[in-house]
Amino acid sequence: MHHPPDTLHARKRRKARATIVSAAFQLFSEHGFENVTVTAIAERAEVGRTTFFRYFGDKQQVLFADDGAEVDRMCAHVREKAPRPLGGNLRACVEALRDAQETARSQPSLSPAHSAILARLLRESTELRSRYLLTRQQRSANLASALTEAGAQEPVAVLAAHLTMACELSAMRMSRTPEAYPERLDEAHRILEGLNT
After folding, report:
1. The dihedral of CA 170, 90, 193, 181: what is its sign?
2. 8-62: which CATH number, 3.20.20.70, 1.10.10.60, 1.10.3720.10, 3.30.750.24?
3. Where exactly are the structural domains of the chain?
4. Phi, psi of 152 (to 5 degrees)
5. Coiled-coil annotation: which residues (predicted)?
6. Are 166 and 140 in contact (CB under 8 A)?
7. CB-based contact 69:110 (threshold 8 Å)
8. Which of 153, 154, 158 minimizes the C-alpha distance to 97?
């Protein structure tokens, strides 16, 4: 597959974005989410507010910045690699998403340090938890569409995407540390498989 040359401009944009994310997470870690302003993030990242808004709509978006890229990778994986025909097979749909999740996880969107901060902030803030659940629901809708495109019946695709989300949320709830998350996620999926035996 031919990739366009990695231009200096693209590299600079990626670097600026990463610097903003890094500055934001440092500040959230030091002061909590509520007490940090966009201005403070821009100052710590040594960019102007205009630059901040070129990359992110608000400070909440910084926290969930890489969710979008991860879900795009998962959807592409489902469309390309899911076994055909998925049809009405719920188990095959859940397994296709699990497979996509494993692949996406091999190049994690957040560093372990940032994941730990995010987990703490979610415990501390109701407002953030609701925003997080909205991003999860959007992610489920995208995954359900990818399954439908791969030939799954719509009700089955929607249920599979929500079961996958339920496993993720359960794993988060059950993890005392971010390091424990992958194991808890495996456990949630094993319990789910127990339904079919």
Report:
1. negative
2. 1.10.10.60
3. 8-62, 65-194
4. -80, 150
5. none
6. no
7. no
8. 158
Amino acid (one-letter) located at 80: E
pLDDT tens readout for residues 92-129: 999 999 999 888 877 766 777 888 888 889 888 888 99
Angstrom CA distances, 52 to 19, 20, 57, 113, stand at 10, 7, 8, 22
- What is the 8-class DSSP label of residue 129? H
How is residue 181 written in tokens?
């998350």
pLDDT in tens, 166-196: 998 898 888 887 788 889 999 999 999 888 6
Amino acid at 23: A
Q: Which of 44, 105, 24 is nearest to 70 (CA)?
A: 105
Residue with tokens 């938890």, as numbered in its chain: 129
The tokens of 187 are what?
């456990």
Residue pair 190/167 in contact (Cβ under 8 Å)? The answer is: no
d(Cα 59, Cα 41) in Å, to the nearest integer? 9
Tokens 């988060």 sit on residue: 172
d(CA 172, CA 128): 15
